[in-house]
Amino acid sequence: MNTLFSRFAAVVDSGVGGLTVLADLREKYPRCNFLYLADSAYCPYGTRSEADIRNRVHSVVGWLARRNVAAVVLACNTASLFADSLRDRFDLPIYDVVAPTCRLAAATTVNKRVAVLATEATVRGNVYPKLLAEYGVDAVQTACSGFVPFVEGAAVDTDACDSAVDNALKDLPHACADTVILGCTHFPVLRDKIVRYTGSARIVQCVVDFVPPSVCLSRRHGKCIFFTTGDASAANKASEFFSKARFVHTDI
Ligand code: DGL
């Protein structure tokens, strides 16, 4: 058995967006060892077909399971659509971001109306409206897949990114939502631009109900290692918003 990563909890995204979730996990669990995997070679997930995303996410989690990681955090809403099918197939704890984020948004909204900004695939999957309805909350979804390449290309501070945000969000104030879910883990990187369209609404970033496996806990500071299926230097550049990510390429 390959035990190289048996003391690591894996955090997975299509790219560097999931680092926004990892930052939170590291703060909460500083003694936990994390392996971050950016599937940059297949990024973006959000504009692909359901079958393509499902197959790819199963391959990625299979790769991690064969390396015997102790848990998997799907730090990606689009991948989280397949959380149940992954749980059925792999015998390890798999955490997703959608259900806990809905719970947080439902506890935040007062007027019971939440705007969800997400990828095309997440919007199509309709998972946020379904789960929020269980809390008696209405969801208004906006597909913003076009934001992802700006984060991956380290091009957030450009006029082109400003116009993409303006095009996608100019009607957001009409949604009358008092809470906005950043339903793609890349979007907190554009938070300063997004808040120009959210008025007084509260912003909810993705959260996860993670329980660190005891085998992953170091005595002092946990280790963090970073893999990308794409170009390591591009991932390093795109992840400058997150300190100390040094990616190594791996094929999956
Ligand atoms: N970060 C991902 C999410 O949370 C998806 C980005 C993409 O690959 O389209 O949905």
Describe this structure in words.
The chain is of the alpha/beta class and 252 residues long. Helix content is 35%, strand content 17%. It has helices at residues 19-28, 50-66, 77-80, 83-89, 98-108, 120-125, 127-133, 148-152, 159-169, 191-194, 232-238, and strands at 9-13, 34-38, 71-74, 94-96, 113-118, 138-143, 179-182, 202-204, 224-228, 247-249. It is globular, with a radius of gyration of 17 Å. The protein starts with 8 loop residues before the first strand and ends with a strand. The mean pLDDT is 97. Bound molecules: D-glutamic acid.
Largest sheet, strands/sense/barrel: 6 strands, parallel
What is the total number of structural domains? 2
CATH architecture grouping of the largest domain: 3-Layer(aba) Sandwich
Highest-level CATH class of the largest domain: Alpha Beta
What fold name stands as the CATH topology of the largest domain? Rossmann fold
Q: Any low-confidence stretches, pLDDT <50, length ≥5?
A: none
| Count of individual beta strands | 10
Alpha-beta content class: alpha/beta
Q: How far do the termini sit from each other?
A: 18 Å
Question: Judging from the principal axes of the Cα atoms, what is the shape?
Answer: globular
Q: What fraction strand?
A: 15-25%
What is the residue-mean pLDDT, rounded to a whole number? 97
